[in-house]
């Protein structure tokens, strides 16, 4: 509230947001906030398979390049999201026919063409996104179904293409899903044993005011214990997860949300500095949240900036709490 200090100025690691190139072009308030408040940017959608590789022999880097140019102008880091995912695959991929070798060629070419295009300009990549189900089993997908050991292969191919890029495994809902967390930790152990390159873990942190603090702290600690870099990669704190149409954002809810933001930042502060890759919010202001668009929850207010792209009370409270610790 009226604080002149920017949150980014008191953090020793990048503060990020996922962005949408259309909003960067069309909306001046959004654009101003994206450049003034954040020091790391992630494409919300435009580096995903369906958008960046729309046809077998055609890549479309135009929107990703726009985000990169904006970030460069702003001296922001760019985080790459995401090379391999079960969701938002291209139609041609879904229709693809071929033996195992053909599928491997497809995925290797996808990964390496993109990583090489952005070589030296993207600090880290979410190489594989959301590969495990809540029960810890491997999620069925085009990749899991056609390529044995596709996780390890994806990391090896990405590393070949840009040996300097940090390679992340990114997933959601580790808190309260111990089997999923265990599967991720087992994967890291297995990679280390086999010398498969992996440098970081992304914990998306799509949480809500009802999420349990102990579970959140625990998964951050367990992830940190791997020694890898840690990215809270898609933060938002839902206040109306049941989509109650009569929901009112009152002071009790605001306080609960503020407390959750503080929990995430103070837990992150306990991570050794060398492992702090950063904290990234999933979208800029409440108005643009995927929870409104994708989940059709019009009365959802999950971010640090409100519908008018103004700082919420939680913003100043977060600064106070970080300074106090
Ligand atoms: O652009 C088309 C538009 O032309 C079409 O008319 C409309 C009709 O459905 O769809 C539009 O595309 C949508 C796209 O967002 C852009 O708004 C897709 O349907 C929609 O599926 C897509 O949703 C994205 C979602 O990933 C897909 O699963 C969200 O924006 C994006 O925020 C969300 O992000 C994911 C992360 O990548 C991974 N972790 C979870 C996170 C939240 O789901």
Automatic annotation (TrEMBL):
The lineage of its organism: Bacteria, Pseudomonadati, Bacteroidota, Cytophagia, Cytophagales. It catalyses: Endohydrolysis of (1->4)-beta-D-xylosidic linkages in xylans. One of its GO terms (molecular function) is endo-1,4-beta-xylanase activity. PANTHER family: BETA-XYLANASE (PTHR31490:SF88), GLYCOSYL HYDROLASE (PTHR31490). This is Beta-xylanase. It comes from the Bacteria. The keyword GTP-binding does not apply. It comes from Aquirufa nivalisilvae. Residues 1-321 form the GH10 domain. PROSITE patterns: GH10_2. Its EC number is 3.2.1.8. Belongs to the glycosyl hydrolase 10 (cellulase F) family. SMART domains: Glyco_10. Keywords: Carbohydrate metabolism, Glycosidase, Hydrolase, Polysaccharide degradation, Signal, Xylan degradation. One of its GO terms (biological process) is xylan catabolic process.
């Amino acid at each position: 509230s009226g604080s002149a200090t920017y949150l980014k100025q008191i953090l020793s690691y990048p503060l990020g947001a996922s962005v949408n190139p259309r909003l960067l072009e069309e909306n001046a308030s959004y654009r101003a906030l994206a450049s003034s408040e954040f020091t790391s940017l992630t494409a919300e959608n435009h580096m995903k398979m369906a958008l960046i590789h729309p046809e077998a022999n055609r890549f479309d880097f135009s929107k990703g390049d726009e985000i990169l140019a904006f970030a460069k102008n702003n001296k922001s880091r760019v985080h790459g999201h995401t090379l391999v995912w079960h969701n938002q695959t291209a139609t041609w991929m879904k229709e693809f026919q071929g033996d195992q070798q053909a599928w491997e060629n497809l995925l290797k070419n996808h990964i390496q063409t993109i990583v090489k295009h952005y070589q030296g300009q993207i600090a880290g990549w979410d190489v594989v996104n959301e590969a495990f189900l809540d029960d810890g089993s491997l999620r069925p997908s085009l990749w899991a179904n056609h390529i044995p050991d596709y996780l390890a292969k994806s990391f090896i191919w990405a590393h070949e293409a840009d040996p300097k890029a940090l390679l992340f495994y990114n997933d959601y809902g580790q808190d309260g899903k111990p089997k999923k967390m265990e599967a991720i930790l087992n994967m890291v152990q297995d990679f280390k044993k086999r010398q498969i390159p992996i440098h970081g873990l992304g914990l998306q942190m799509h949480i809500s005011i009802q999420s349990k603090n102990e579970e959140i702290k625990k998964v951050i600690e367990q992830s940190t214990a791997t020694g890898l870099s840690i990215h809270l990669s898609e933060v938002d704190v839902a206040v109306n997860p049941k989509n109650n149409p009569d929901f009112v954002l009152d002071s009790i809810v605001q306080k609960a949300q503020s407390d959750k933001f503080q929990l995430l930042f103070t837990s992150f502060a306990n991570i050794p500095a060398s492992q702090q890759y950063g904290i990234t919010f999933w979208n800029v202001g409440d108005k643009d949240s995927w929870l409104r668009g994708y989940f059709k929850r019009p009365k959802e207010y999950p971010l640090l900036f409100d519908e008018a792209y103004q700082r919420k009370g939680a913003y100043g409270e977060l600064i106070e709490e970080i300074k106090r610790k």
